[in-house]
Every structure is written in structure tokens, then in C-alpha cells.
């Protein structure tokens, strides 16, 4: 199922690689913006570098690509840039198929008002025996996500949920780090 990117909106992909993962990882989100693709690439990279977002992933994980596709889907411009933003968490990372689950919160109820994104694995020490993030790590991660969302918005790139139909994108009001970690079966070696 593909998403619809209306004019005045863009889809952003953050691409991660590194020795801490066997396969590339990605997280995506939509933004409402009138900026050019080049400006969006710069602004998103700056927002990550300015925030403490790299504290969420291990030093063996690197954010190495930012891709942007502006709407409309068929004729909007796109671009990508190479970056090198290393994770700063020095504690060993969890298994590459374990991701941190972030809920995109909106003011819209129901299925259309829900979104999520995945970030590279938390460090192993932050995951308790119950499979959830410990409260100290969770609180710090929540603060980092709130700060990053504010920085994005201050740069003129407010986060939105892009939908797979003709519904207008929905403004993301906050990001909520979930305690249970998410596993992605496709990331397991066969």
C-alpha cells in the first residue's frame, strides 16, 4: 500500500547502516513544508545533529542517508543526501531485529489518527527482562523525541501522518516512545 503525498507535503526517509546491523534500517515520516528538497534535506539533517536524537542508537549504528520525496506523488521532486551521524550510546546494542517503537500522536481518533515509526535498537542495558525499556531510558528518550519534534517544527517542517488514500495528512502533535520494544522478523538472518 503506497502513501499519498499531496502538494505542500513531503515524505522523509532516514536510512541507517553500520557494523551493528546485518541489513540497512529505515524510519520514515511526513512533513508539511513549502521548502525545496535541498532545504528539507539540510533542515532534517540539522534537526538531528542539533537534537540529542543520536543518543537513542548505539555507536555501531550510523544514520548515513536522508531521502525526501515531495508531493504530488507523480510529479513532485525528490532527492537524497549522504550524512554520517553516528549513534552516541556506548553500551552494546540489542539484536538488530529489535527496534524502538515510537507512536505518532495526533488529535484525530480512529485508525486514520494513528502512526508509528521504528528507530534502531536501544542499547541492550535499557531493555529489561520483560522486553520493555526501563523507565530511566524511556523518560530520557521521550524528552529527546519531544525536543527533536520541536526543532523540526521550528525549522518549518511540521511532522504529519501521510495516508494511503485521498484524506488530508494529519498533524502529529507529539511522539511517544513505547515501553515494549518491537521485533521485526524480516531483520533476522535465515
Distance between the termini: 26 Å
Structural class determined from secondary elements: alpha+beta
Rounded mean pLDDT score: 87
Shape: globular
Give helix % range.
Answer: 10-25%
Radius of gyration from the alpha-carbon trace, in angstroms: 16 Å
Strand count: 9
* Count of discrete domains: 1
Low-confidence stretches: none
Kindly estimate the percentage of residues that lie in beta strands according to DSSP. Answer: 25-35%
Element order: H for helix, E for strand: EEHEEEEHEEE
| Major sheet summary line | 9 strands, antiparallel
Number of helices: 2
In brief:
18% of the residues lie in helices and 34% in strands. The chain is built from two helices and nine strands. The mean pLDDT is 87.
